[in-house]
Specification:
This protein has about 100 residues and is mostly helical. The chain has one domain. It has helices spanning about 5-15, 20-25, 40-60, 65-75, 85-95, and strands spanning about 25-30, 35-40. A two-stranded antiparallel ribbon has the order 1-2. Helix 3 crosses helix 4 (about 65-75) and helix 4 (about 65-75) packs antiparallel against helix 5 (about 85-95). About 10% of the residues are buried.
Length: about 100
């Protein structure tokens, strides 16, 4: 299986809308516990596939906890040195919560 097949398989398995996430002008993302509409900037569209590959390689989930874990890893490893991507990772990092939280997914 090549990288493209792995990504497509991941998107299909998790029932994610590939076209919508890469083509829409606005996406809804968690910032902390708030689901907020944010502009779908070119940098996000460009680097999203790498972020998703990190999910596949690490085995971290695509839920809020998994996204927080991946974002922490991406920040710690400096896997992307673009400031805007680091800011987006900080927002994603803020979504993590523990099982005793009153906030549900």
């Amino acid at each position: 299986m090549n990288v493209k097949e792995a990504l497509i398989g991941c998107y299909k398995f998790n029932q994610l809308d590939i076209a919508g996430d890469f083509e829409s002008h606005c996406v809804r993302l968690y910032i902390g516990c708030i689901l907020a509409p944010v502009p779908n900037i070119k940098a996000r569209m460009k680097y999203l596939k790498f972020h998703d590959l990190h999910h596949i390689m690490s085995g971290y989930g695509i839920d809020r906890i998994g996204d927080s874990e991946i974002s922490a890893w991406e920040l710690g490893s400096r896997s992307c040195r673009k400031p805007i991507i680091s800011i987006m990772n900080l927002f994603a990092l803020s979504t993590g919560y523990n099982s005793h939280s009153l906030i549900s997914t």
